[in-house]
Amino acid sequence: MSNPIPQPNVPLPPLPQSSSGAGNAAEPMPQTGAVPQPNQPLDEMPMPAPQTQQPSQFDFQNAQNLQQFEAPVAPNYQQPQQDVSQFAMQDSAQYASQPMMEDPQQFVAPQQPVMQEPAYAAAPVQNYQPQPNALPANARPVGQLNTNRSLVKWILLGFITLGIYDIVIMTGATDALNTIASRYDGKKTMHYCLLYFLVGPITFGIGTLVWFHKMSDRVGNELQRRGYQPPEITATTFWLFNALPSFFEIPVLIGAFFVPFLFVVDLALYALQLVYMYKYLDAMNTLCADYNMRG
């Protein structure tokens, strides 16, 4: 069973009693306002005055008793207001110190700093020579080769030793050429002593021409491979400065006995052969120096 709802303890008002105190006869209600007459137009009828009900003792007692059952009102907690005037003054002072931009398009994004490489002073270049081509890393000189061949010693010592010094120089140059170039071109030049004492006389000098032609061409190719452009000596150099002058040297020498002026021509032809020998010895010194340094 559910508990009954408690009813407020409201006292009932006493019943009104007549002044005469006789019985329960009801007194007539007072009428207010005019009473409409029959056959009277509607617009002329008087409007009844509004009736106002006077509060009774019952109403005041009900109001006092009902106040005991009203819900309690929640307290009105108000958040304390912060004084923002100080912060507003600081912000206004901060923005006032910054210049105002008339046109927003004038804003330029900050540029990133550009890192510049430090400038290095170039080392002075002395005695510039063409850079040789790259060689294999495993190429190492077997030994130090001779680099002091000279045309003056070729002439003087050759004359004093009756040509023996010239044979020694040419033999050493042939061996040096084979040491330098054989690992790259797979060729081998004939020993000079074998050419001088055997092949040349048997072939009536033709073998000598072929030998000098191939040897000069091989020296020029090795110079090119090591980066020396143009090479100091080639096969063409041999034919222009050695072979052709030697063809005319003997006939001119014979004619000089009849025409003394031809002695000058013979000396010029011999000078051309010395030019070739100078080029050959200098080219071999260059090859040997490069080999001693890089292999």
Task: Please outline the helices and strands.
Elements: H1 57-66, H2 85-97, H3 151-160, H4 164-185, H5 192-202, H6 206-225, H7 235-255, H8 262-294
Summarize the structure.
This protein has 295 residues and is mostly helical. Helix content is 47%, strand content 0%. It has eight helices and no strands.
Features:
single chain, 295 residues, mainly alpha
What does the model show?
- It is a single chain.
- The protein has helices at 57-66, 85-97, 151-160, 164-185, 192-202, 206-225, 235-255, 262-294.
- With 295 residues, the protein is mainly α.
- The chain has a domain at 151-294.
- Mean pLDDT is 74; it is low at 18-27.
Shape descriptor reads: elongated
| Oligomer category | single chain
Mean pLDDT rating: 74
Q: Main sheet?
A: none
Q: What share of the residues lie within helices?
A: 40-55%
N-C termini distance: 121 Å
Our count of helices gives 8
Category from helices, strands and their pairing: mainly alpha
Could you name the ranges where pLDDT drops below 50 across 5 or more consecutive residues? 18-27
- The secondary-structure element order is HHHHHHHH
